[in-house]
Design goal:
- This protein has 367 residues and is an alpha/beta fold.
- Helix content is 50%, strand content 16%.
- The protein has a domain of 195 residues: Bacterial extracellular solute-binding protein, family 7 (D-Maltodextrin-Binding Protein, domain 2).
- The longest helix is centred in the last third of the chain and has 34 residues.
- The two termini are 39 Å apart.
Length: 367
């Protein structure tokens, strides 16, 4: 009893509220060694703890030990974990509008412009997306995108002609559409099965980020990489809270977490994807041929991008999203603005990016 009273007195003296302290379980099916965890999620948790002066801490349980990637949404919503990582693409029935955030791969080419556009599209443009998450009992703090996809193959490839007829592992519909447009044969593959498919000859190529070569153990299997940007995977939510767990956090600490997000977007992409991409390329350039692609491939990409708006409208219609043409047009315009109008303002300048993201996105955060 004396110890408890002493702790309470010290807490009051230091301005710390014992009642507000929260240690939250965090569940993710992403492998613990992945760059997204080591350089993105875990540092973000540390920054949240610092920003809340230790009142919000996390117990991360990674690699599918508690929740799988497909089962994470329900695990968070049902309180199996207090917070976690989930992919919107696995839940088109539960998240008809929000799941579109995982279908915009073909709209992005710059990693920083893409993560800015993605979060504006979700937190500002798409009211139905946020309604989907509220109805499911989840509170997202940010959405994640990555770095440009590259075509990675088990044989030498350098041109569009080299790719035609090859089987390509794809983990999303946009990547499958891109592969098919090149005359390749898309094979829907889970992230965990990409290596096995390549090793067993079930597929010839995969379309993932460059740093994934290391994250998913592809370094002894991939022989060549076409580096031309071929879209940016989006739609993952690296930190979402169970609504009840979110409500238990003091309002001031919730505001402090949101206040971190404008800069967190930049740092997340830079630390978890851009820098690991550069490091992996440098480390493996003697063993793997990194090539730029040819003009025919670049032309094919331009044609593909022009057709993506119609493909997204079709998906939105199939999922029963209201006013699909208007919503998709608005999302496409957000991506255009970030890539064409705003990118020259913040290119290479994280402070400028932070200012823009704060004004355009997180000043309007409404969870």
């Amino acid at each position: 009893m004396r110890q408890a009273i002493t702790v309470a007195i010290l807490a009051l003296a230091s301005g710390t509220s014992l009642a507000s302290a929260q240690t939250l379980t965090y569940g993710s099916g992403v492998p613990e060694r992945s760059g997204a965890n080591r350089f993105g999620v875990l540092p973000m948790m540390e920054r949240i703890t610092d920003a809340t002066e230790g009142r919000v801490t996390f117990t991360p349980i990674l690699g599918g030990q508690l929740v799988s990637i497909p089962g994470a949404l329900r695990g968070i919503a049902d309180g199996v974990v207090d917070s976690g990582f989930f992919l919107t693409q696995f839940h088109p029935a539960e998240l008809p509008a929000a799941s579109l955030m995982s279908e915009v791969t073909g709209l992005g080419t710059d990693p920083f412009a893409t993560i800015g556009a993605l979060n504006e599209a979700f937190f500002v443009t798409c009211d139905a997306c946020r309604s989907d998450l509220r109805a499911t009992g989840l509170v997202p703090l940010l959405l994640q995108s990555a770095t440009p996809l590259t075509m990675q193959c088990t044989r030498p490839v350098a041109t569009l002609t080299d790719l035609q007829g090859l089987r390509v592992s794809t983990i999303g519909q946009p990547e499958a559409r891109w592969g098919a447009s090149l005359g390749m044969v898309p094979v829907n593959t889970s992230i965990a099965d990409i290596l096995t498919g390549l090793q067993l000859g079930q597929t010839d190529c995969t379309l993932v980020g460059t740093s994934w070569i290391r994250s998913y153990g592809l370094e002894d299997t991939v022989k060549s990489v076409i580096e031309m940007p071929q879209g940016i995977i989006a739609g993952a939510v690296p930190l979402a809270f169970n609504a009840g767990a979110w409500d238990r956090i003091d309002a001031a600490d919730r505001a402090a977490m949101v206040d971190l997000m404008p800069r967190m977007l930049w740092d997340y992409v830079a630390d978890a994807y851009v820098e690991p991409d550069e490091a992996v390329r440098a480390e493996l350039s003697d063993a793997i041929a990194f090539v730029p692609g040819d003009e025919a491939l670049a032309s094919a990409w331009q044609t593909f991008q022009a057709d993506e708006q119609a493909a997204l409208v079709t998906l939105a219609q199939q999922r029963g999203v209201e006013n699909p043409e208007e919503l998709v047009a608005a999302i496409v315009e957000v991506f255009r603005v970030w890539h064409e109008d705003l990118l020259p303002e913040f290119d290479g300048d994280p402070e400028a990016f932070e200012r823009i993201a704060r004004e355009r996105i997180f000043s309007l955060y409404d969870f």
